[in-house]
Design goal:
Largest sheet: 9 strands, mixed
Pfam families: Phosphodiest (PF01663)
CATH class of the largest domain: Alpha Beta
CATH superfamily of the largest domain: Alkaline Phosphatase, subunit A
Protein name: AP protein
GO molecular function, one term: hydrolase activity
InterPro entries: Alkaline_phosphatase_core_sf, Phosphodiest/P_Trfase
Number of domains: 2
Number of helices: 14
Helix content: 25-40%
């Protein structure tokens, strides 16, 4: 049995303060897992579970836009614009099913309707089950219960679970707030319960823990659509020919139906603004209708929102965020620790990438999984 658990939002820098307890217990430790850009939950989790880059799985952010209509689409709740068969067939669940292996998936983004998962528990279904306004602690406890039940049933070959509590509390209170820091103790207690259940099963297992991205505290806010509305592109913005989309992030996707030269002029204009780190033009071909023309990367500690008048800011009370380019803001990157029968004991690796996780799991199963990533040989025992 192979178990993959996502500790949403915990940066490699903060985890490093607690990593020694895992290494002492025999876990191998990758100090830094390079995340996606933008460094956000949906893009990172799609990259992990497929092993592909956003150009291939098309999940560019938590919020995207249709490149032709410029309709804003929030992926929360697994919107079927991207949560569909095209994405599902890129996942490790599909490769496992082709080889007659079974999967359980708990609270992982963009998995609704994935027929290659034998037992699927979505975050939205758990919220409905728990009823009323539930805390992130209760949601994670539900994920823990489902995970342990799946292990004890010995029904599934692969289990993938996401724990959301630390990320949510960091957004609300700050990445190193008392609330977020105290929650880490509960989070690691959850992991200990999972490990104990695996050992109790007396079956061979591999347990891989990772984080999808980190967090950074906020000092300023930036509203690029409002800037467009007051610029020489105000008519095009009003006609919905050009827009930025994001959901309280350090980066915003840029969509436009203007010609290439006009887009370049917009990018140059924004590059000169003091809140902007860089404006990356998207290059390369993709069949996705959700590919942006560019990605606006903000300076560290600046939070971007895609509101336009008369909309009001939603995130002025938010304390921490992510989204920045991981090469520019290092705390956006995650980590990985792993323990198991097929894994090295106490191996330390300096750096790897999120897209390499699923090829590593495929190697543990001895199956093929075509994707952009490659297996992390240093943690697999047969690759000494």
């Amino acid at each position: 049995m192979n178990v993959l658990i996502s500790l949403d939002g915990l940066s490699h820098k903060l985890f490093a303060q607690r990593a020694s307890q895992f290494v002492r217990n025999g876990y191998s430790y990758c100090k830094k897992m390079i995340t996606t850009f933008p460094s956000v939950t949906f893009s990172a989790h799609a990259t992990v579970i497929t092993g592909n880059h956003p150009d291939k799985h098309s999940v560019f952010d938590n919020v995207v836009s249709h490149a032709q209509t410029l309709e804003r689409i929030e992926l929360y709740g697994d919107h079927d614009s991207l949560c569909n068969e095209t994405l599902h067939k890129q996942t490790i669940f599909y490769s496992l099913a082709k080889h007659g292996l079974t999967s359980c998936c708990i609270h992982w983004p963009l998995t609704t309707g994935n027929s290659y998962i034998q037992h699927l528990v979505t975050e939205s279904s758990s919220k409905k089950k728990l009823q009323e306004s539930v805390s992130v602690d209760e949601i994670d406890k539900e994920a823990l219960r489902e995970t342990i039940q799946a292990i004890e049933s010995q029904t599934y070959d692969f289990i993938a679970t996401r724990l959301i509590g630390y990320d949510a509390l960091s957004h609300q209170h700050g990445k190193e707030s008392v609330e977020a820091t105290e929650y880490l103790d509960r989070l690691f207690a959850h992991i200990n319960q999972v490990e104990m259940s695996l050992k109790k099963s007396k079956q061979p297992y591999n347990l891989l823990l990772f984080s999808d991205h980190g967090q950074s505290d906020i000092e300023a806010f930036f509203y690029p659509n409002e800037i467009l509305a007051q610029s020489r592109w105000r008519e095009q913005a009003s006609a919905k020919q050009i827009r930025f989309v994001a959901d309280g992030s350090g980066a915003l996707l840029f969509y436009s139906s203007l010609d290439s030269q006009q887009n370049k002029e917009v990018m140059e204009y924004f590059r000169e603004l003091p809140e902007v780190n860089q404006f990356y033009e998207r290059t390369g071909e993709t069949a996705s209708v959700y590919q942006p023309v560019g990605i606006l990367d903000l300076n560290h500690r600046v939070c971007g929102e895609d509101i336009a008048f008369p909309e009001q800011p939603k995130y002025t009370e938010m304390k921490s965020l992510h989204g920045y380019h991981p090469s520019q803001v290092d705390e956006m990157n995650g980590f990985m620790v792993c323990l198991g029968d097929q894994l090295e004991n106490g191996k330390i690796i300096e750096e790897s990438r999120l897209e390499h996780i699923v090829p590593t799991i495929a190697q543990l199963f001895q199956i093929s999984h075509p994707c952009d990533g490659t297996k992390i040989n240093d943690v697999i025992r047969e690759y000494k």
